[in-house]
Amino acid sequence: MPIRWVDGKDGNGGDGMSPRVGDGGSLSSGYMKPTARGYASKDPPGRSERAERPLLGIGLMLIGVTLVPLLDGCAKLLSEDYSVVQIAWGRFVFHVVWLMPLLVSSGARWWRLPALAGFQAARGFFLVLATVSFFFAIRYVPIPNALALLFVSPIVVALLSPRLLGEPFHWSKLCFAGVGFLGVLVILRPATEAFEPAAFSAILAGLSYAGYVMTTRYVAPRARPLLTLFHSGVIGSVVLSLVMPAVWIQPDLRGWVLMSLMGLFAAAGHFMIIKACEYAKASLLAPFGYAEIVSSTAMSWFLFDYWPDVWVWVGIAIIVVSGVGVSLFAKS
């Protein structure tokens, strides 16, 4: 995440030299732009103060998008024995546990109520809904297929951002969004025996993640990235803990280990993506976010002996072209 040093107090109780993202401003002024599941960013003023190291940025981005699919693999393994709600609870709780040492060592005042608490809560709710929906989908649908459907979120944001975020509207965005919808249909194949109704849960995850993206764009200029990442885990943990008595199954050692690994992969993966954005421009990093599909496919082949058929690859290619097209036209 591109950050710069600013004077004075920040919205999270930081000291006079606390890193922040951006300068505040309107709803569309945020510099942090989550991609399908990580973070990319616009380039903020003051980037020249930090020496750019593009190869390091790309390397960190690739590490991040390699770690995140491992979280999905753990979730799919856990789905054999636990409800998706309990699995999501484990993901968020251990996300917080693994982040705590980093927060304490950074001196961040993590215990204070965050700035824009209402938006932070809405952002956390969207992420919880996206996580539960996606975990439900991968219980029945191969992970690469579900992930490709999750990648509709940048397309949805491109369509909604002119009205909700005040960003410019381009007909090209609408055209590329239509192309992306065609890719979704190719993967779903609703009129064939390959159709799996649970895939709609992955689309719901994509729509929910679009809401997460847009609320993040508002929160990002006013909050430290590490604290924002922490608050996501806290909100998810609290919300899902409310329903745990109804679905709880006592985990065995394997269950606890997999849940712990989920939190580790989530925290480490997203942190790597944030750090990548400190060293390289968003326009350079954005295409590498789609490498998550490659790492997800490799993980699915290794753990579950699954390799997508030709039509899934065609659909993935269409969605990737659509997402890159939307991104390029947005920059122009």
Could you please describe the fold and organization of this structure?
The chain is mainly alpha-helical and 332 residues long. The chain has one domain (4-13, 24-331). It is built from 13 helices and four strands. Strand 3 (32-34) and strand 4 form a beta hairpin. Helix 2 crosses helix 3 (117-140) and helix 5 packs antiparallel against helix 6. The longest helix has 27 residues, at 253-279.
If you average the pLDDT, what whole number results?
77
Count of strand segments:
4
Strand order of the largest sheet: 1-2
Q: What is the straight-line distance between the termini?
A: 22 Å
Number of helices: 13
Radius of gyration: 19 Å
DSSP strand (E) fraction? under 5%
What is the succession of H and E elements? EEEEHHHHHHHHHHHHH
* Overall tally of structural domains: 1
Task: Summarize the biggest pleated sheet.
Answer: 2 strands, antiparallel
Helix content class: 55-70%
SS content category: mainly alpha
